[in-house]
Design brief:
The protein has helices at residues 3-11, 30-42, 51-61, 64-84, 98-112, 122-132, 148-160, 167-174. By secondary structure, the chain is mostly helical. The protein has two domains: 1-82, no CATH class; 85-184, no CATH class. It starts with a helix and ends in a 10-residue tail after the last helix.
Length: 184
């Protein structure tokens, strides 16, 4: 990690101004060291980038400047799939009419065209990683966030909001799948 890299992170507001780095004892505050180490780890060669960690740092900093950066990043991330699908947010029909609802459903389906569903088994990956570190996880299920059922639901919420998703459907989507017992 170089001085130039630290300065870039500071300019992105992932690190505070250098005048704020030291504690009362004159030593660099431990949280500054931890954040810099995480940033260095995530920005190494071959890494995808800082993205979500940067968002979390902005949220935790809780300043007007970091809130503005976070807001811009979230809006950009939400617009990316719409832009890729050629959808203009201003063209999304509003209202409770059946025609508006159907149009939003069609736009959500358009978002999913040419979208491949990853077959990653995130639950096994999480458990294997935890086991290597000696951590035992409670029984749970981690969904594949790229599965067609999840992205389809997400596309409908993105285009039409939660009003387009029935309460029962939201509850059903939140339930964990039941594991089949052997012999059934």
């Amino acid at each position: 990690m170089s001085v130039a890299q630290l300065e870039r992170w500071r300019q992105h507001l992932w690190l505070p101004r250098t005048t704020e780095w030291r504690g009362e004892d004159g030593a660099v505050r431990p949280e500054i060291v931890r954040i810099a180490a995480l940033l260095a780890q995530l920005s190494g060669q071959g890494r995808r980038g800082i993205s979500w960690l940067g968002w979390a740092i902005w949220a935790l900093a809780d300043t007007p400047q970091t809130a503005e950066r976070l807001r811009g990043a979230v809006v950009s991330a939400l617009r990316t799939p719409l832009d890729r699908a050629g959808l203009d947010v201003a063209q999304v029909p509003v209202g409770d009419s059946d025609d508006a609802f159907e149009a939003r459903q069609q736009l959500a389906a358009q978002l999913l065209q040419n979208r491949r569903s990853s077959r990653l088994d995130l639950n096994s990956t999480l458990r294997e990683s935890a086991a290597r570190e000696g951590v035992e996880l409670p029984p749970s299920w981690v969904p594949n966030l790229h599965h067609r059922a999840v992205t389809g639901f997400g596309a409908r919420v993105l285009v039409g909001g939660t009003a387009d998703i029935g309460f029962e459907e939201m509850l059903a989507r939140g339930r964990r799948p039941r594991r089949r017992e052997p012999g059934r």
